[in-house]
Structure formats: structure tokens, C-alpha cells
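[agent] plan:
  1. take the single chain provided in the ticket
  2. run structure prediction with default settings
  3. attach C-alpha cells to the ticket
  4. add a short note for the reviewer (M.T.)
[agent] executing step 1
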Amino acid sequence: MTDAEALTNVQIPVQVWIENHSGDLDACDVIVEMEDGMIFTALFVTIPYLQRQMQLTYDLSRQIEDTIPAKFVALDTPHILVDSLDRDSIEDTIDNLLAMEIFESVFTQVTESPTTTTTTTGQRATQEVAAVVLSDVLMVDDN
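[agent] step 2 finished; step 3 output follows
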């Protein structure tokens, strides 16, 4: 890949929304809109969040007959472990993931294409659905 091609493939975030989990200060959903209109999401957590999950698994395994209680976490979706959930830490992490070219391996792409048109079947295109979710459903911290 030439330098010119590399520059055209660079993703630049234009907006970052942080949705705090109700009653949980150690986990939040992060939504990132890129310059090309693509939207991605990921779960950011801290070590205390993982420790609580391990305790929950331990407590559950104590109640199941014929199991030996064990503390563990089985993560079925990507989690980004950070020291703090403040905006600067989250945005710095996003920048580093992009620079390391691993952003798309830990963030889930919400949109399929940067289009905002309605499909021929009358259904909303993915970008429009994402916009509705962002504006009407989520309570986000935009600071």
C-alpha cells in the first residue's frame, strides 16, 4: 500500500458518545461516528467491573449442584479494559486503537454503509436506524 492509499484509508472520529450504565460506574457503552458517517460501538470497562463479574460467577457456581465454585469471567463480546472511564481516557484509547490498526477488531460496526437513503422496500437504511437510536433511545453524556 502506498502512502497516498494509506492516507485515504485513515478513519477519523468526528463524534464520540459515552452512555453510562445505569447504576454502574465501571462500565459504559461508547459510540463513535467516523468522518465517512460510519458508526461503531464498544463496551468499555474497568477492573472493578470484571471483579464484580467474577464474584457473580462464583456466587452462581456455589448454588449449582455438582460444581466447584470458581471465580472467572467468560466474555462473549469484546470488552475494552481501561484504567478510567473519563472522556480523555476513552478518546485516547480510541486514538491508539486506530493508530495500531486494531480499532475494527474491538469495536462493532453499526452501519453497513455511509448512506442515509431509504431502501427500495421502504425500510430505513442502516444509517437512518443508527441515527434514530442515537437521537431517540440512548441517554448519552456528550461532554
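[agent] step 4 note for reviewer: The chain has one domain: 3-137.
[agent] ticket updated
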